[in-house]
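Interim report, section 4.2 (structural modelling).
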Amino acid sequence: MKDRFKQKYTAGAAVAYMSRKQALKKLQLTLKDFRRLCIIKGIYPHEPAHKKQANKGSTANKVFYYRKDINFLAHEPIINKFRDYKVFLRKLNHLKAKKEDEKIKKLYDNKPVYNLDTIVKERFPTFGSALRDMDDALSLCFTFAMLPHTRVLKEGMIDSCRKLTAEFMHYVIESQSLRNTFISIKGIYYQAEVHGEKITWVVPHERGLPHVTDVDFTVLVTFVEFYIAMLGFVNFKLYQDIGLFYPPQIGQVVEGDEMESEEYKEKVYSLAKPLAKRKDVEQTEDDEPLDLLGEDSDALAQKVKEAKNIKTLFKGCVFYLNRECPKEALTFIIRNGGGVVGWEGAPNDLKADSKNITHHIVDRPMDKLEVNRLYVQPQWVFDCLNARRKLPTERYMPGVALPPHFSPFTSEKAGDYIPFERLEELRSMGKDVSELEAAIPKTMDELPMRRKEVKPEKPKGIHIAVGQMHKKSKEKFHETVEKGQELKMRELMISKKHQRVYHSMKTTFKRNRNDALKLKKKAKLVKATAEA
Amino acid sequence: MAPGKRTGAAKGSRHNKKYWRKGTDITDIEDAIHDRSHQAATGGIVEDMKDEEIFVVDRLPTSKKTEEPQRTRKQQAALEKITRNITQEQVSLPKPTGKVLKKPAKLPRGNAILKLKAGVKKVAKRQEKEPKFDVWNTDLTPRIPKEKLDNPEAVEHFLKVVKKKQPKTPGKSITTLLPAVEVAQGGASYNPESSEYQEYVTRIAGEEQRLIDSEEKTKRGIEPQWEKVTTEHERFLEMAEGLRIHPNFNKNDEETTTTVTQEGTEETVKNGPVTCERMTKEQKKKKAKAAGLEKDEKKRLEEKAREQDSHNVYRTKQLHKELDEEEKQRHVESEARKKKKLLNKLTKRQKLGRGAFVEAEDPFLLKEELTGNLRQIKPQGHVLDDRMKSLQRRNMLPIGGTKAKKLKTSLKSKVVEKRSVKEVVKGSRVI
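Predicted structure of the assembly:
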C-alpha cells in the first residue's frame, strides 16, 4: 500500500502563527487601521518558537501574531467603524473640493464614532485587573496632558487627559493613598496604593517638554485613546467607592453647563479645594485594625501604621506656596497628608500675609521672613512623605544647601555602602537597620583596639615562678587556622565549573567591601573638615 | 466749406500767416457752439447730465413671448406636481359624493415644512459624551426582546452574525513580567547623594566608552591600516621614467643597472631537491609489528567488553536503577530548561519585526549642572521616549526596520541591431 504523506506546513507552528501581512489580508484592513485595532484590543505580536516553521521555510524577520488572536479580531464590530470612517473621509474630501460647506457641516455631525465600553470590559474583566494596568495609563495621560495639540494630537484628547488625571489625583488625595515620591531629572515619580495595588507613575517636570523625534505619535495616541476610556471607568468606580460625586464637585452641586466652564475646570484642576461628598454614603473610619494588630513588628501592622502616619502627616498645617514652587506636585502631596494649601490666586486665595499660615514654601533666597511661620524649601514636603513624619526644618531652610534627596524605591542590600543620612531616614521610617549597619565594613579606628598586654618584667637571674597554664588564645589561634585550612580544602573540592563563579563572587564581595570602606572614610574626612 | 474748394486768402500758400487767419475751416467749432447754446436754451447740456436723467430702464419685453412647448396631460400633471407650492396648507381631500365606502384619506405624511411650522425641530445628531457608569457591575451583553425572537439559539446566532456579540476571548497569556514604569535610579535624583551619583554616572560613562570603543573598532576594520596611495607626483615620475624630463635621468646610470641585476639574482627562488626516501627493511618490519600489536589490543578489548556485557545479566537491577536515575535527571533538567525558557520569554526582548531594539540612554546631569534646588532644575530625557522604549521592551510593539534591497542577480538582455547589420538590405552588394 502506498504511504500517504502529510503535507508540509499544515500543522504546528506553521498554523498557530500568522504573519502581519497575512493578517492584513484576512481582515481587509490597512496597516494603520490594523495597528490601531491591535492596540485597542490588546493583541500583541509573538515570536514563534520555530520561526522557520512558522515562516514556511523562510528565515526573514517578520511580525507574527497568534492565528486565534487574528480570528478573534475578525469579529470586532469596530472594524466596520474603521471602514465607515474611510468612507467619511472620502466624502469629506469630495465635499471640500466642491466647497459645499453646509453638507460638510452635516457630514461632520454624523461622523462615525466607536464606543470602547465593551472593549474595556473585555480586556479588564475585573476592576482589579484594570487597576493593575494603571501604571501605563497614568504615565501616558499625565504626559499627554502637558503636550501642545497638533494635527495628530487632537485638542479634545489633551483636554480629557488633563481632566482624567486631575480626577485621579483628587481621588488619591481624598483617599490619602499616596505612598512614595521621587524627584528625578526625568520627572517626578509617584506611588500610590489603591485597593491594595501599588500604582507607580511618572509626571514630567512643569517645563515645556522638549521635542521628540523618534517617537511614533500615532501609536501612542491610540494607546491614549484606549486609556482615556479605561481611566474614565476606573475613576468613576473609585469615586463611587469612597462616596464622591462623579464628575467631581467642589462646594455646592453644580449642573452640566457650569461644569464645562473654564473657570470651574481650573478650580478642579488646581487640586486646592476638597471635593464634595455624597450625603447618602456613610463615611467609614477604619481605625480598628490597627488596634487589633497592636504594636507588632509584623509587616502588615507596619503597613497600616505607615498609612496612618501619612494620613496625619500635615494635619493642622496651612501651607503657603510661593509662586516659583511647583504647585501641582506640592498641593498633591500636602493635601494627601491632610494639610491645607493655598497661594495667591488659588481657589481659596490665601494671602501671603495671612495669620494662620504655618509653613511657607520657598524656592529662592528670601530676605524678609516672618516670625510665626516655618520657611522650607519644596524638597522638605517630598522627603517628609518618604520618611512618613515631619522632618526637622532646619536643614531645609531657604538658602541652605539641601540634604540629598533619596529614592524611596531603591532597596538597600546588606554590605552596600549606605550613607549616614539614609540610615537615619530608614530608622525613622521604623525599618530594622541593624542588619544593614552590621554589614557596613569598619574602619581601622572603629575596630576594637587590641590592648597590649603588659608583660611583667622577668626578674633577672635564677628564680622560681608559678607554673603557667597552656594559653587559651593560642588554642583559639589554632582553631582559626584549622578553620581556614578546612575552608581552603573545601574550596579545592569545588568543581572546576563552579570554581570560577566562586572566585568572581569572592572578588566582587571584596571589591564592594573596599568601595564601601573608601566611601566611609571619605565621608568621615569631609565631616571632620566641615567641623574644623 | 467743402474740401478742395478754396477761396480768397485760402488760395494762397498754407505756410503763411495769412492763410492761418483766413483760410482755416471753423465751421465745426461754430456748429458745436451753436449746439451747446441751443441745448442750454432748450433743457440743459447733455454732456453734464447724469445717466438717470437721460435714460430710462426699459422693463417691457421687446421680443414676443416664446411659445410654451406643447405638453401631454401626463407631462403637465408631473410638472404641476413638482412645481406646486408645498408650503400651502393642505386640507383633506374633498368629500366624495355619493356613497361613502372607505374612510377619507389622511393627509400625506411627508410634509416636512408643515411639521416644521408646527414646531417639531429636527436637531442634527450630536455626539454627546455619555455619562460614565460602572462597567464592572453592568451587564453589557446585547439582548433581543423575547416577543421578537424567542428561540435562544436563534438569538445567539443572530447576534453573532450581526457582530453584536463577540466569541469567547482567546486565553490571554501574560506578555511580560517587567514593570510598566521603571523608576529611575537613586543617582538620577535631582539632588543626589554623592556616592549614588558617582555610581550612576560612572556606569553611564562606562557604557559610553564601550560604545566609542566599538565604533573605533569598526572604523579600524573598515579602513586599511597601511594603505599606500599613489600621489600625482609619483605617477608622473613613473610615467616619465627614462625620459629626459625625469629628474634622475642619466644621473647614475651605471649604479642603477648594477643594483637591478643584483636584485634580480636574489629574487629567483630555488626549489629544494625532491627526494624520495624509501624505508629500510628494518623500519618496515617495525611498522608491521606495531600494527599487529595494535590489532591484537583491539581484539582483546572487544573480547573484554563482550565478557563484561555477558556479566551485565546479573546486574540488571543495578542497571535499572541507573537508568531510572538518568531519566529522573533528564526530567529535572528539562523542567529547568522549560522554566528558563518561559522566564526568558517573559523578561527578555523578543525579535518582533526587522528592526533592532535600541536601549534608551539614561539621562544624566553633569556635576556643575546639578543646582540642588527644584526651581533651577534642568529636566533631562523625555517621558514619551521612555514609554515607547518600555512598550518595546515588554514586547507590546513590533519594531520596524527597512527592508534590505535585493541586488539583481541576472541582467536583462537587450536586443540591439548594429548599424553594420542594419545597412545590409535586400539587393546590397556583398564585397
